[in-house]
Design goal:
About 45% of the residues lie in helices and about 15% in strands. It is α/β, with parallel strands linked by helices and about 375 residues long. The protein has 2 domains: about 120 residues, NAD(P)-binding Rossmann-like Domain (Rossmann fold, 3-Layer(aba) Sandwich), CATH 3.40.50; about 190 residues, Rossmann fold (3-Layer(aba) Sandwich). This is Hydroxyacid dehydrogenase.
Length: about 375
């Protein structure tokens, strides 16, 4: 009799535990993940930004609406906007989010952009509302800048090695090239590289790359102290010193009203014979006519990934026919597989937002 009572008691305990575990499981299953909407133009960009691993990571923390929004002003979006907790954005949609559209997203908590800035997705009024609501914003500017720094590093090494002229004359002559005669000053040992606006994100990353080589580095920057420059492996210098003493000048200045045409004839005339000018920043920062005039003398060389006033470069530009000019079609920033680095960054930042963790690249 006592045995039967004990058995029934044990059964009751087990059943109660099962019910408790079952209820906990139902509770966990009913806990909904936040909703993420996608916006970018063109919509196919998302397939270049994201690989299977990144989709799996994002799906683990959020419900993702993979129907990409390219225009926030089309009809039929209200339900999707009302459900949105976070926005994954790429390069801008056809129409930015205005204050009226933002009001349709009462649950919005964060915007993470696979672009240099998240705020460009918003009109000024919407941006102000985002700030007032405490909506987080994050961008991929630093991540997008890594390939730019790597591009500059590659160009610096090849320019110092006289790679571009070596390739050209070998192809033209199709015979033995006497290296001692043709390239007496080629090489990277103890050459001087000058960075203009060295305090920028891209330039700082480039400084880190330059540390691995036997180069002298000059850093022009208003925001960087002499001590910080030294810690980054460089010596602080003014703009004139950078142009006068460098074998290679790499420009990293943003295009602002105050910087239009900033690099003019004065600076190009200061450059050493045979020196190189690299522009992977913005063409408008350079006085194009002054640069072309000095390049026509053959005294200096240039590597241009950006141009102004035309980009792509106009078909009749004299730059096309100059042997001392290397032109690339604005490829320094993320392209190909590098775009996935930006997608990875967005997934990282959205995960931080969802988990209440600090952002790496918050705005």
């Amino acid at each position: 009799m006592l045995y039967m009572v004990c058995c029934r008691l044990c059964d009751n305990i087990v059943n109660q535990e099962r019910k408790t575990l079952s209820n906990e499981g139902v509770s966990r299953m009913s806990e909904s993940k936040p909703n993420v909407i996608l916006t970018m133009q063109p919509p196919e960009l998302v397939n270049k930004l994201m690989n299977d691993t990144q989709w799996d990571r994002l799906n683990a923390v959020a419900n993702v609406d993979r129907n990409v929004i390219t225009d926030f002003h089309v009809e039929g979006l209200d339900d999707r906007l009302a459900a949105a907790d976070y926005i994954f954005s790429g390069w801008g949609p056809d129409a930015r989010i205005d204050a009226e559209t933002l009001a349709k997203m009462p649950n919005l908590k964060g915007i993470a952009a696979a672009a240099g800035n998240a705020w460009r997705l918003l009109t000024p009024e919407a941006l102000e509302a985002v700030k007032q609501r405490g909506i987080q914003m994050s961008n991929s500017g630093y991540v997008n800048g890594i390939p730019v720094a790597e591009y500059c590093m590659a160009m610096i090494l090849m320019a110092n090695k006289d790679f571009f002229r070596a390739e050209r004359i070998y192809r033209e002559r199709r015979e033995y090239i006497n290296r001692e005669v043709e390239f007496p000053t080629a090489g990277n040992y103890e050459k001087t590289v000058g960075l203009v606006t060295a305090g920028s994100r891209i330039a700082r990353h480039l400084l880190g790359l330059l540390k691995g080589y036997r180069l002298n580095v000059l850093a022009e920057s208003r925001s960087m102290s002499e001590e910080e420059a030294v810690s980054l492996g460089a010596k602080k210098a003014d703009l004139e010193t950078v142009f006068r003493e460098s074998d290679i000048v790499s420009l990293h200045t943003p295009s602002l009203p105050a910087t239009q045409g900033m690099i003019g004839a004065k600076y190009f005339k200061m450059m050493k014979d045979g020196a190189w000018f690299i522009n992977s920043a913005r063409g408008a920062v350079v006085d194009a006519d002054a640069m072309i005039a000095e390049l026509k003398t053959g005294r200096i060389n240039a590597i241009l990934d950006v141009t102004d006033p035309d980009e792509p470069l106009s078909a009749d530009s004299p730059l096309w026919d100059m042997p001392n000019v290397i032109l690339t079609p604005h490829i320094a920033g993320s392209e190909g597989t590098e775009l996935q680095g930006m997608g990875e960054n967005v997934v990282n930042e959205l995960t931080h937002m969802i988990k209440g963790e600090p952002l790496e690249f918050g705005e």
